[in-house]
Amino acid sequence: MIKEQCFGFLSTPALWTGEEFGINQFVFPEVNLNRFLPKPISKKLRLGHQMEHVFTQLLIRNNTYDLILHNQPVKDENRTIGEIDFILKHRETEKLIHVELTYKFYIIDPTISEPIHRLIGPNRKDMFFTKMEKIRNKQFPLLHSKNGIKTLEERQINHEEIEHQACFKAQLYMPYTNADVDITPLNKNCVYGYWLKFEAFEKDDFKNHQYYIPSKSEWVIPPHKKVRWSSHFETLMEVNLHTLNQNAPMLWMKKSDTEFQKFFVVWW
User: Fold this and answer.
1) How many domains does the chain have?
2) pLDDT per residue over 16-32, tens digit each?
3) According to the model, what pLDDT value does residue 241 have?
4) pLDDT by residue (tens digit) across 85-137?
5) Phi, psi of 131 (to 5 degrees)
6) Residue 43 has pLDDT above 90, yes or no
7) 166 and 204 share a domain?
8) Do 86 and 194 sit in the same domain of this protein?
9) pLDDT number for residue 34
10) One Pfam match, by short name (predicted)?
11) Are 102 and 160 found together in one domain?
């Protein structure tokens, strides 16, 4: 499973290229995956923390950067006020790069007028714009705060020599009835599937296929046939339970042994 997560992470495109919103996108270096045997990752960890472990295990196999530190708490006396995801050193230039890692799943809501505000979590608790602003306005400046400078100095790192970047990967899901919603200037290659309401999933269009509800650890990986598939009727009952709990599950749909789709069924 961890190996599939690593490949899924690598194949997920960055949400934008170059600089957007005042944030430079980190370009993940080529990694040597020959005889790659990643260490197991606990499924009890939140998916974001699982992706940090994936990032680390992949990064140590590259020839471009050295990993200087990761998951470094920044404290004000005994109170943790933030965390530094990663600091890397380029092996040739010795340039220091601070990388904030984010891996998200967003649905596109066309009822919202501004394109960059249209990206929201499947349960409407998470917004791209809010996360982007937090990276730019809180997580990057943290390293240049009094406590951030002190934390870095203790590790012989000069905060003035650090360049900030974000490794912001995402899977986007368009409305089932409208696959052409404008998301400029974001990367259209991040579109992985669609979303629909429970009432739409009940209809005849979906009755003749088989389904699997992946665990959150499996959200990163492409659908495959080596899982226990269920009928539409069985899946409908399970999705209904999610709906009652105000939880939007991801579904894999098997149309044939070689054709699969990913989508979310939302409760709201």
Assistant:
1) 2
2) 999 999 999 999 999 88
3) 96
4) 999 999 999 999 999 999 999 999 999 988 889 999 999 999 999 999 999 99
5) -65, -45
6) no
7) no
8) no
9) 85
10) DUF1853
11) yes
Tokens of 45: 């960890």
Cis peptide leading into 185, omega within 30 of 0?
Answer: yes
Structure tokens at 7: 């490949």
What is the sign of the dihedral through the CA atoms of 157, 138, 19 and 84?
positive
Domain that holds residue 7: 2-173
Average pLDDT, the chain: 95
Could you give the 3-state DSSP secondary structure of residue 138? helix
Asked whether residue 165 falls in the same domain as residue 194, the answer is: no
Are residue 45 and residue 88 in the same domain, yes or no?
yes
Nearest to 225, CA basis, from 249, 196, 247, 255: 255
The sign of the torsion formed by the CA atoms of 34, 39, 40, 42 equals negative
Say whether pLDDT at 252 is over 90.
yes
194 and 166 fall within a common domain: no
Give the H/E segment covering residue 70. strand 65-76
The answer, yes or no, to whether residue 180 has pLDDT greater than 90, is no
CB 46 within 8 A of CB 217: no
* Distance from the Cα of residue 187 to its chain's centroid: 14
* Mean pLDDT across 208-234: 96
Specify the amino acid at residue 145. Answer: S
DSSP code at position 181: -
